[in-house]
Amino acid sequence: MYRSDSDVQIVGHRSTTGYKNEQVDKPLEEGRNTYEQAARKKIYDELQEILVKDIPMFSLFYSVEYAALRDNVHDFVWIPDQIPRFRDLWKKGH
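Now predict its structure.
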C-alpha cells in the first residue's frame, strides 16, 4: 500500500507521482487496520471520493504487451500492471 508522502516507503512501495495528501494517508492507514469488511469498505469508499477529485495520476495510454512461452510452461497469467508474478507458474519436464 502507498502513502501519498513520497518520502515514506511502506512495504517496499513508494509513491512515484509526487502526490501528497494527508487526507488520503489517514484513511489508507485506517483501512489497513480495520478487519471488519463493511467498515473497511466505507473507509475505502470515502478514500476513493478524495482520489476521484484529486486525480493524482491519469494514464493517457497503455502500451500493448506481448509474452511468449514455451509449450512446457504452464499457469502463467499476464496482468497488465507490468509486474510479473511467478507464484503459480510451473514447467513440465522436457
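The chain is about 30% helix and 5% strand.
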